[in-house]
Design goal:
Strand order of the largest sheet of chain A: 1-2
Helix content of chain A: 55-70%
CATH architecture of one domain in chain A: Up-down Bundle
CATH superfamily of one domain in chain A: Cytochrome c oxidase-like, subunit I domain
Largest sheet of chain A: 2 strands, antiparallel
CATH topology of chain B: Four Helix Bundle (Hemerythrin (Met), subunit A)
Largest sheet of chain B: none
CATH class of chain B: Mainly Alpha
Number of helices of chain A: 15
Number of domains of chain B: 1
Order of helices and strands of chain A: HHHHHHHEEHHHHHHHH
Number of helices of chain B: 6
CATH class of one domain in chain A: Mainly Alpha
CATH superfamily of chain B: Cytochrome c oxidase, subunit III, four-helix bundle
Radius of gyration of chain A: 24 Å
Distance between the termini of chain B: 45 Å
Shape of chain A: globular
Oligomer: heterodimer
Strand content of chain A: under 5%
Chain lengths: 586, 199
Amino acid sequence: MSNHEQHAPLGFWRKYVFSLDHKVIGLQYIGMAVVMALLGSGLAMIMRIQLAWPGAKLSWLGKLFPNAFPEGLLAPEHYLSIITMHGTVMVFFVISLALVSGFGNYLIPIQIGARDMAYPFLNALSFWVMVPACLVMIASFFVEGGAAASGWTAYPPLSALKNAVPGSQWGQTLWLLAMALFIVSFTMGGLNYVTTVLNLRAKGMSLMRMPLTIWTMFIAAIIGLVSFPPLTAAAIMLLFDRHGGTSFFVPAGLSIAGKPVMHDGGTPLLWQHLFWFLGHPEVYVLILPGLGITFEILATHARKTVFGYKMIVWCLIVIAVLGCVVWGHHMFVSGMNPWLGEFFTIGTLIITIPSAIIGLCMLATLYGGSLRLNAALLFALGTLALFGTGGFGGVFLGNATSDIFLHDSYFVVGHFHFMIGGVTLFATLAGLYHWFPKMFGRHLNEGLGKIHFWLSILGFYGMFLTMHFVGINGAPRRYYDFKAYKMLEGLQTYHLCITISAFTFAVASIIFLLNVTWSLWRGKKAERNPWDATTLEWVAPSPPPHGNWDGPDPVVHRWPYDLSTHAGAKDFAMQTEGPDKAPVTS
Amino acid sequence: MSHSTTTTWDGGGLPFGVSWQKLMMWLFIVGDAILFASFLAGYGFLRLANPNWPDSGQIFHMSLIGTMTFVLISSSATMAAAVGASRAGQREKATRLVWLTALGGAIFLGMQAYEWSTFIHAGARLSTNPWGVPLFSSCFFVITGFHGTHVASGVLILALTAWRNSTGKASAEGVELAGLYWHFVDLVWVFIFTFFYLV
């Protein structure tokens, strides 16, 4: 059936703002993520300035925010707020939004041959719930006491007691409300993803013919649906602890500033369990789509079929299942039973096997390929590099024996920035360079793209590889000023190096933003299929209209990676090409 | 949901043989079930951490709770009958049965309100109670309250479904979707009943 006629032209508001079109919603998410990324990275730069030059005065910030920066000097309690908000914003409101919500919405229907999501209204609603989530999160900076200061993990009792630190006042409550809105929005999106992938595929698009991007989005959506509810439950209980006088997470015998706290019987460990039951799978919600996009780009730009497609799919599923039962490796120092620790250690280390297989499949995909070293492929290669180095650090943190030494040190900060900061960010950028021609009908500038890549990868390794060494040398995370501790004074040079790398990365990002702005209007025009890619979105015009394909519904005849399998001038076969055009291999 | 009620998938039978609407409802139910499971697991965690937990058998009126449970489970039966009638095309019968189900839910809510008020009169508050560990009443109010909210929203959904069905707007599948949610809310109560009142 064709439902193209229902996608009639709409006015500006219905077309670009309150749109039901999955592609517009996807781009809205990406745009929102860019805005939040400016906030998140701005916070990071403030932290880096403070750590490299403790006591440096930022007089212009002092004028803007006299409470947080009295006379331009960052107050220690607000340093904690900045850490918390940087983590929360980056994990939930930048990476999740750009990668899972942004690319997920844009790519899922168009890559499986559907004209839209299963329930477009719910999809639009999910975006319009995310908007207040972002606004509430930003608003928390401006309430009394400032933004939440208990870390992105919001550990009680710091997050449960309103007078623990200044940020534990309304900032923490708004943080919880914003997270609740985020979860509602994310759940609505996830429901749409899973049902769309299962029920709306085009004719011939069997599960094992789906592009890996779709597989990873599909699995990520399932993990999200399974793992977010425990955090919802925990957030509700924490709100009751804060405003209802209950003690779910607060033990007896605490006192603040000499005054005993009127709570009894709870345990902060319950929060840690519930939080990490979400928190760890959330890592895979973010990482897996990054890997899927990377496969897509490696195959297309190396002109090679993806190596081990079925094995990769099964590895992704194994990672998803195991990823949901190893949350305890974030809690090795919480005093858990050593046998339980053993269980979490072994589970975590088993995950390295499918992860390593995926990494090797990426390398094997590249082997013997004819690489087009454009910005998209460079960023995909960067993702692969970060996945390798970051994963290597993960082995040390997944093992209770070494984790007890490394726990809460800069080693952890370096590791997770490689993984949920780096793999995801580089994959997002690779995806933008790759799909920008489809999204806007124009190419990004290649020269600027390459400068962007080299500065980014240099800055990124400079920041986070260095952090690994700082951590091994004993620097704990979340400290305000390392010069105040004699044993850590010697690490100041490293901190300076990290900050310089951070500035390098910031310069690269500014170049990227300029590139995007310039290319949106002046970039080289793109045809339908500028990369000689094989998947269904490249059958549609660039940019695709509402309803995606100008012709009849696409029919799929082959798997998505029919590259370099055919002799002759054209080395690929698109998924829509029938057996009369080229033999169907899979 | 204009254009998506029929699906473009025509490569054989649908996965799981269900429409996307029903699939979405099932997925939502799985997520919501995990939410309740988290609450109950948290409750179990706290109860095990507090050895002097009050003996619930001494505090709750088991006959009242038993009647509540009976009413709620009976409403699941009328719901199942409503879905059957709706499928058989007996619209008026289906409407009556959905109204009856909503009535069962409303009676349950009324009895729960009565239970809460006796509990509060006996001195229980969100943050304290006369029987010992304060978390006992905290868990009670939060978890039964959360379930009660689900029942209340379920009654609203049922009333809406009954009204839409009487005017001919609801399809048999629409009735079934409301039924799925209602059965789920009932099933959750069975677990809450077991872990709060029996164990």
